[in-house]
Structure formats: structure tokens, C-alpha cells
Amino acid sequence: MNNKEGTFFSPKMKIVEVCHKCRACVYACPVKAIKWGVGEIIVDRFKCAQYVLKKGECFNCVAECHQGAIALEEYELKDGKIKKK
């Protein structure tokens, strides 16, 4: 992890029943921080944070989810740890 700190938004599946399991969110992620787990997405928040803090906000996964199953949650990266705000 780099030394950057700050607040960022990261995806979370908000309505599992709405997801069509198309994996568009997985393919849309520029750093492959989203993986398909057992019935829901798994997000590597460190990969997501590194990208967002370096490049700026990224909402590719939300934009590609035509079912509206993904929401963004606010997180904070401080002292190498990520916590939900």
C-alpha cells in the first residue's frame, strides 16, 4: 500500500436478489478489484483505494450495473487501514 491517505467510495452489492450475475461490474473494474464470490461480489478495498486515490473517483462498476444492484459506500484509508465511514 502506498502512503496516501484519504476518503474514497468503494462498491458494495446492495440488493443481492436484483443482481443478474452478469459480472459486468467485474469486467468494468480497471484494477480487477471486484471478484465474483458465492452469490455476491467481493471487493478488494485496498486495490480500489489505491486506484481511486491515485487516479480519482471511479464509478465504472455502478455505471455498468444495469440492474442497480451496486451502491457506493464511503471508506477512509488512514495509517494503512481501511474503515467504513
Description:
The protein has 85 residues and is an alpha+beta fold. It has a single domain, classed as Alpha-Beta Plaits (2-Layer Sandwich). 25% of the residues lie in helices and 32% in strands. It contains 3 helices and 5 strands; from the N terminus they run E-H-E-E-H-H-E-E. It has helices at residues 24-28, 45-55, 60-64, and strands at 6-13, 34-36, 41-43, 70-78, 81-84. The strands form 2 sheets. The chain has a 3-stranded antiparallel β-sheet with strand order 1-4-5, covered by helices on one side. Strands 2-3 form a two-stranded antiparallel ribbon. The longest helix has 11 residues, at 45-55.
Keywords:
3 helices, Alpha-Beta Plaits, 5 strands, 85 residues, two-stranded antiparallel ribbon, alpha+beta, single chain
Order of helices and strands: EHEEHHEE
Percentage of residues in helical conformation: 10-25%
Q: What's the architecture in CATH terms?
A: 2-Layer Sandwich
Derived from helix and strand composition plus strand pairing, the structural class reads: alpha+beta
Tell me the distance between the termini: 20 Å
CATH class: Alpha Beta
Question: How are strands sequenced across the largest beta sheet?
Answer: 1-4-5
Rounded to an integer in angstroms, the radius of gyration calculated over CA atoms is: 13 Å
Low-confidence stretches: none
Q: Give me the number of helical elements.
A: 3
Sheet-strand content, in percent, reads 25-35%
Basic shape: globular
CATH topology: Alpha-Beta Plaits
Number of domains: 1
Average pLDDT: 85
